[in-house]
Amino acid sequence: MAVSYKKLWKMLIDKNMKKSDLKEQAGISSASLAKLGRGDNITTDHVMFLRSMLMAMPGKLAVDLGGTHTAAEQAERDRVRNEERKKKAHEAYEAKKKEAARITTPLEESKPSSSPRS
């Protein structure tokens, strides 16, 4: 998703903290810390805990939240993306099938034209 935690990382630098310090003090898992590093979404509970720990408003921890989508919107985007992938895969399959049929179909031999014998 389009979430940037640059403000969080800047805040850690300002407080002379490392990511490992954040992990220990906040009690978050390595997986959640990795999500933060990748810019993925984390649970609201984690955001609120980080906010209270760092004494900051949620908007001070992450930005670009307007670029994220609700679960329903993301599900719809995923559904459309999967439909497009299926369509492309089907088109590729049909093209290969057509090519295979063209290759395996015997060529018609030229038949000499027969002229009526008189």
The gist of it:
64% of the residues lie in helices and 0% in strands. It is built from six helices and no strands. The chain is elongated and about 75 Å long.
Walk me through this protein's architecture.
By secondary structure, the chain is mainly α. It has 2 domains: 6-63, 434 Repressor (Amino-terminal Domain) (Orthogonal Bundle); 69-94. 64% of the residues lie in helices and 0% in strands. The protein is built from 6 helices and no strands. It has helices spanning 6-14, 19-26, 30-38, 44-54, 58-61, 71-104. The longest helix is centred in the last third of the chain and has 34 residues, at 71-104.
- Stretches where pLDDT falls below 50 for ≥5 residues? none
Radius of gyration (CA) equals 30 Å
- Mean pLDDT over all positions: 75
Question: Considering DSSP H and I runs of 4 or more, what fraction of the residues is helical?
Answer: 55-70%
Please state the overall shape, judged from the principal axes of the Cα atoms: elongated
Question: Describe the biggest sheet?
Answer: none
Helices and strands, in order, run as HHHHHH
> Number of domains in the coordinates?
2
Output the CATH topology of the largest domain. Answer: 434 Repressor (Amino-terminal Domain)
CATH class of the largest domain: Mainly Alpha
Distance between the termini: 84 Å
Question: Number of helical segments?
Answer: 6
Strand content: under 5%
Total DSSP E strands: 0
Which structural class do you get from the secondary structure elements?
A: mainly alpha
CATH architecture verdict of the largest domain:
Orthogonal Bundle
